[in-house]
What does this fold into?
Amino acid sequence: MTDRVEKLRDLDVFIYHGKVDIPDTYSAGTVGSRFLIEIRDNKRIMGTRCPACKRVYVPARSVCKDCFGRMDEWVEVGDKGTLLTYTVVHVPTSVQLKEPPVAYGIVQLDGADTGLVHLLGEVDPDQLQVGMKMQAVFAEERVGSILDIKYFKPAA
Ligand SMILES: [Zn+2]
It folds into this structure.
């Protein structure tokens, strides 16, 4: 243990509970924007393929994380995929979009080499299993948000 941490042990620590409202706005960038526009306008999920390692990224990104190569090739992937992992949140928090239990998963869409983190729906959390086939459910009204995919449900 460092001396600094050891010194903190002897201090009385006050904890103040508060809430900070931090509005934020950010650009999805050109690649992120196209990814979201394809979902909004065409209910089509697109990825980008690395010219060197051929990995297809979903969500689309501009640079391969392994090769650092620029990726300009867009490929359509399926709206179905495989559940790689998941978690179920049972505690309500201010950032949850719905009441618990809330299931989140990482779905590797057919044709993609990476996973997409998203909400899972229309499924009893106790029935979730790694490896099960999932299918995107698109929102009726799409606005250019990742929530234009409402969630992934078990594929029929
Ligand atoms: Zn690559």
About this structure: The pocket of zinc ion is lined by residues 50, 52-53, 55, 64, 66-67, 69 (CB under 6 Å).
